Amino acid sequence: MVQLKINKLCMQFGDRLLFKADALQFAKGDTIFLQGDNGTGKTTLMKVLAGLIPATSGELVWQGQTHTKWWQKSPQLGKLVYLHQHPYLYEGSVKYNLSFAGRHQKMSGKLLAQRVEAAAQMAGLEHLLDANASNLSGGERQRLAIARAWVIQPDLLMLDEPVSNMDKESRRLVLEMVHTLKRQGTGLLVSSHQTCGITALCRQTWQIENQRITSGPFNTEQGSVQEESLHVITS
Ligand SMILES: Nc1ncnc2c1ncn2[C@@H]1O[C@H](COP(=O)(O)OP(=O)(O)OP(=O)(O)O)[C@@H](O)[C@H]1O
């Protein structure tokens, strides 16, 4: 079972305590809605879990191994993906962006080409495959970033405000991609200020409140879920 365990995590910026968590677990197949008010540390937590910044103290255990040497190549590379709401894209075409990570995995050229084509279609970007990624609109960039993750099928995917500033059609396309990943077993950790189609896929919640992260069950009745979710969930 692919999993990331967090023990006695503490995050501070200078003297300011951001959050503490005794024990949390994020595993393949999990679907977790990360909730918390503005500034409580949701993005920071995701960056810590992705190994992009170190926690002040505590332990992250990936597949039974503690990962404390932050300057070394992360063992989670390609298996755990973090998508920021303003995603970083590589210099080059949409096609280049979609194929980049797959080239560094043990994926055959034929399979990679098939997945890139399928991802472009799912993301509604097939007509932009040769366009320069830096010229894409905000919504197209977010769709491309999720499609890029879809190509490599990570074990764990962290989505930071995945549908913020997206129109209805973009939200539908992104939901479809995320839902496919979920069906294939990818674990999801989703931060969002409002319930949406993607949070409706979640069955657990991590709540950051009073500088503590607590976990519990989440059912979609806890929030009013927007109508676009239901079509995908039941189909
Ligand atoms: N490198 C840093 N140095 C100092 N403070 C930081 C740093 N990075 C983030 N912070 C602060 O930590 C707090 C949490 O930031 P973070 O972006 O993780 O919150 P968030 O819960 O994702 O917020 P939002 O919901 O508004 O996106 C903020 O007050 C932010 O200013």
From TrEMBL:
Stored CDD domains? ABC_cobalt_CbiO_domain1 (cd03225)
Q: What is any Pfam family matched here?
A: ABC_tran
Entry keyword annotation includes Ion transport: no
Keyword hit for Cell membrane: no
Q: Which residues cross the membrane?
A: none
User: From the Swiss-Prot or TrEMBL record, what is one GO molecular function term?
Assistant: ATP binding
Q: Which PROSITE patterns match?
A: ABC_TRANSPORTER_1, ABC_TRANSPORTER_2
Q: Where is the ABC transporter domain?
A: 4-235
Q: Tell me the keywords, alphabetical order.
A: ATP-binding, Nucleotide-binding, Transport
The similarity annotation says:
Belongs to the ABC transporter superfamily.
Name of this chain's protein: ATP-binding cassette domain-containing protein
Organism, as annotated: Shewanella submarina
